[in-house]
Design goal:
- About 8% of the residues have low confidence.
- By secondary structure, the protein is an alpha+beta fold.
- The chain is built from ten helices and 26 strands.
- This is Replication protein A subunit.
- It comes from Gossypium hirsutum.
- It holds the Pfam family REPA_OB_2.
Length: 536
């Protein structure tokens, strides 16, 4: 066992009890109390007298048992109100009754609301760092949220005590601590007004990009690199039916590798927009990523999560060394992407294929679908049945989206939900022909992909064609979207139509070609395929 705290202060004012030692005369047995019947004049039953005198020891007799006094209730019992001793975060454990920690808030999560069998609730968390480098997460629920959410500020130092420690939930907590603090109604959080320079403002554990290639999927790590490209922010519809923003950028470092970083939600409009403006103006900033999540689909990439923090041009030795490397020649050094390619806007690590390769390699004919990326041009769009009327009702946290029909009372009916409603949604079901330098093929584009291709909503196109019957305007929009080049993220799967097996190609995502990023992709391909090329 390792001693964590060698000394501890005395609690209260203890004193030795008086009269605890028995007196000698009380310890001696009274021999005269022996009954006469027990004495014998027969020497056979008497102990022989000792030949010489020896020292006699008087035995110590324990005092007779006395029952404890019966205390009467005369007032409240005094508590130890002395302030708890400040200990390192690393010394915290659930078996300590009184503790206090002094630490800096390095991250603060958003206020989240939830609903379960116990009812509605709210929760938020924040991360702490102390002067010894110890980190721990603190979580507050419901009424405790009301007390501390507006009190906690990132970068400030606090004195925290009277919380309970529970095992950390590693699915959501990436800190290197097996415990997590849960604040309660009697917990105290006191702001330390004087700045404590011994506590760092942030703690990093950077991994070179080349090591990310061998990192486990879903692992959380820190990475730092030069931002070499930033793509526009695009809206994405999550599986739960909620829309969010996504932005893709790429980092490179001195290891000779680059990696794709996906920004989600507010990161796109805050740090993401600032990074795009810097790169567009010719600057290549250093970006430090605290707590990024590894994705290993067809390579390795990094994505932001709720606890991720981004630091642009941070003041740390790693950033200074990276900047010096970049300015002294690293700017012109080719890097190999561990994300397979630098696809603008791609959420995962794509594999590039030409349209002819899709057919020649028999993609989509296995049990699982194939996911590829193709750079192609839209050459034709079918205008018959380009969209369908969809159910707008929510099933749990997702929209139904099943096809609805209009009943006799002009209300829309969903067979799945078995409900009628006044208004319905309109969702794209586009049949598009795309072409590249090797051939052409038909693809199906649903809602988000259809909006990206046509540049307007399905409801607008439906009203033009069927209600306003403005075929001229409708035709102008269709023709204006032809012969535009995109990067198509495709899902290829063989499906059964009647008695015939057909390969269906579905557009999962459409992105406009970013020619700067596309040029870097081509240069990377040259580096990979011709490593011994001559330098000109």
């Amino acid at each position: 066992m390792e001693t964590i705290i060698p000394e501890y202060e005395i609690i209260g004012n203890p004193k030795l009890p008086t009269g605890s030692e028995p007196e000698a005369n009380k310890s001696m047995p009274n021999n005269n109390l022996l009954e006469p019947s027990t004495r014998s004049t027969n020497n056979r039953y008497s102990a022989p007298a000792p030949a010489n005198k020896a020292q006699s020891f008087q035995p110590t007799i324990q005092p007779a048992y006395q029952p404890p006094p019966n205390y009467k209730i005369q007032g409240p019992i005094m508590k130890n109100e002395a302030p708890a001793r400040i200990i390192p975060i690393a010394a915290l454990n659930p078996y300590q009754g009184r503790w206090a920690i002094k630490a800096r808030v390095t991250a603060k999560g958003d206020l989240r609301r939830y609903n379960n069998a116990r009812g509605d609730g709210k929760v938020f968390s924040f991360d702490l760092l102390d002067s010894d480098g110890g980190e721990i997460r603190v979580t507050c629920f419901n009424a405790v949220v009301d007390r501390f959410y507006n009190v906690i500020e990132v970068g400030k130092v606090y004195l925290i005590s009277k919380g309970s420690l529970k095992p950390a939930q590693k699915n959501f907590n990436h800190l290197k601590n097996e415990w997590e603090i849960f604040l309660e109604s009697n917990s105290t959080v006191e702001l330390c007004p004087d700045e404590d320079g011994s506590i760092p403002r942030q703690q990093f554990s950077f991994r070179p990009i080349t090591e990310i290639e061998s990192a486990e999927n879903n692992s959380i790590l820190d990475v730092i690199g030069i931002v070499i490209s930033v793509n526009p922010s695009v809206p994405i519809l999550r599986k739960n039916g909620m829309e969010t923003q996504r932005r893709i950028l790429n980092l490179k470092d001195a290891s000779g590798k680059s990696v794709e970083l996906t920004l989600w939600g507010d990161f796109c409009n805050k740090e993401g927009q600032k990074l795009q403006e810097m790169v567009d103006s010719g600057l290549f900033p250093v970006l430090a990523v605290k707590a990024g999540k590894v994705n290993d689909f067809n390579g390795k990439s990094i994505g932001t999560i709720s606890s991720t923090q981004l630091f642009i041009d941070p003041d740390c030795p790693e950033a200074q060394g990276l900047r010096a490397w970049f300015e002294s020649g690293g700017r012109n050094t080719a890097s190999i992407s561990i994300s397979k390619e630098l696809m603008p806007g791609g959420s995962k690590n794509e594999i590039r294929k030409t349209l002819t390769q899709i057919k020649d390699e028999g993609l989509g004919r296995s049990d699982k679908p194939d996911w590829v990326t193709a750079k192609a041009t839209v050459v034709f769009i079918k205008t018959d049945n380009f969209c369908y009327t969809a159910c707008p009702l929510m099933i749990g946290d997702r929209q139904c989206n099943k096809k609805v029909t209009q009943s006799g009372n002009k209300r829309w009916l969903c067979d799945r939900c078995n409900q009628e409603f006044e208004e319905c949604d309109y969702r794209y079901l586009l049949q598009v022909q795309i072409q590249d330098h090797t051939g052409l093929t038909w693809v199906t584009a649903f809602q988000e992909a259809g909006e990206e291709i046509l540049g307007c909503s399905a409801k607008e196109m439906y009203l033009l064609k069927y209600e306003l019957q403005d075929d001229t305007r409708f035709g102008e929009i269709i023709r204006s979207r032809l012969f535009h080049q995109y990067l198509f993220r495709l899902k290829i799967k063989e499906e059964l139509y009647g008695d015939e097996q057909r390969v269906k190609i579905t557009v999962v995502k459409v992105d406009k070609v970013n020619y700067s990023a596309e040029s870097r992709y081509l240069l990377d391909m040259v580096t990979k395929n011709f490593p011994n090329r001559k330098q000109f």
